Each structure stands twice: as C-alpha cells, then as structure tokens.
Amino acid sequence: MNSWARRPNPSAQPTAAAPSAAQKAAAERALRHAHAIHPLPKPPTVEWRRYPVTAGRAYPMENRICLSALLLTTEERVRETLLHEYAHLVVYQLFGRKPKPHGEEWKRVMTALGASPERTHNYAPLPTPKPRRTLIYRCARCGEEIPRVRPFKRGRAYYHVKCGGSVRLNRRLQ
Questions:
Q1: Please, which contacts does 34-39 make with residues 24 or more away whose CB atoms are closer than 8 Å?
Q2: Is 85 considered catalytic here?
Q3: CA–CA separation, 146 vs 171, rounded Å?
Q4: What does the pLDDT look like over 86-119, one tens digit per residue?
Q5: Using CA atoms, how far apart are residues 55 and 69, in angstroms rounded to an integer?
Q6: Which residues have CB under 8 Å from 6's CB, separation 6+?
Q7: Cβ atoms 44, 32 nearer than 8 A
Q8: For the packed helices 75-95 and 104-112, what is the interaxial angle rounded to 10 degrees?
Q9: Cα distance between residue 77 and residue 23, in whole Å
Q10: Residue 18's pLDDT band (boundaries 50, 70, 90)?
C-alpha cells in the first residue's frame, strides 16, 4: 500500500445492531403488507444497522434493506422507513435504473403501499461522538472568510463567487 493511500477505518462502518422484539415485529408486519401489495420475486432481506442519522437504505441489486436500530424507535417509524425502502426495490424491479430515486414511479409505488411519498424523514439524529470542526477559507482578493464543515477537494482551484479571487484554507476551528 502506498504511504499516501488512505487506509479504511473499520470503526467507521456502521455495524449490525440487535433490534428490539417490537422493532422486528413491526418490520415483519410492514414487509408482509408491502409484499402483499407489490410482490417481489423474492422477499428482501432486512438487516439492522447502527446508523445514527440515516433511517434506512435500500440495496436493489442485492434485494436488501438496512434499517437503523437506533433511530427507528416506534412502530410507525419502522413501518414508514421500511415501506420507503421497499418502494425503491419495487421501482428497481419494474423499471431498472432509469427512474430517479424519488421520482414519479417511486411516488406511485409509495401511494399504492399506503404511505406518504416523502423523500426524507424528520427524526432527530443521534448526537455525534465528536463535534464537527469548522474550516475557515479566505478569499485572496477581497479577504472574505467562508466557513465550511467539509474541506474542499485537494488539487483543485476554487474561486470566490462574488469577486473571483482564489480561495485558500485559512484556519480550522473546533
């Protein structure tokens, strides 16, 4: 491995989590409901993860749904999220990769499943273990400071929208 190559951090991957009996039962009921309305050739596998912000993810090519054991604390949250992710699998099965992830086809499937076609949830995320740092970039021409959480990509030139001056990292705040 090159000395500059980034090594994967195994602790950064969300690990499997043990759902409560109520979470499992709610997921099974929602999956039976969804499969009765829009049957797939093979029911998807449902896995529970320790996602602190994301409620769920669908992996259509693997016919798999991952749900957050940390965020989905009520039966209604489990049902909404599972139906949302199941709709992604149905759209992939019917239309392939062509439709947009939350496009008209997905909205029609969500409505048929009896769920509201909302793109995102509003569950409060869990507190992150460490506070996110703030990066302060400065415009070389006008001197305006531009705060960011994510750094700009290395090896690229960035210019200030207002004046056209080059933008460089000035300092990091905690």
A1: 34/82, 34/83, 34/86, 34/113, 37/112, 37/113, 37/114, 38/86, 38/90, 38/109, 38/112, 38/113
A2: yes
A3: 11
A4: 999 999 999 999 999 899 999 999 999 999 998 8
A5: 8
A6: none
A7: no
A8: 130
A9: 9
A10: confident
Residue 56 carries which DSSP code?
Answer: E
Q: Is the model's pTM score more than 0.85?
A: no
Taking the CB of residue 108, how many other CB atoms lie within 10 A of it?
15
Residue 18 CB coordination number (10 Å): 9
Q: Which one is catalytic: 75, 80, 85, 104?
A: 85
Quickly list DSSP for 129-170.
SSPPPEEEEEETTT--EEEESSPPPTT---B-TTT--BEEEE
Q: In 3D, which of 39, 32, 34 has the Cα closest to residue 94? A: 39
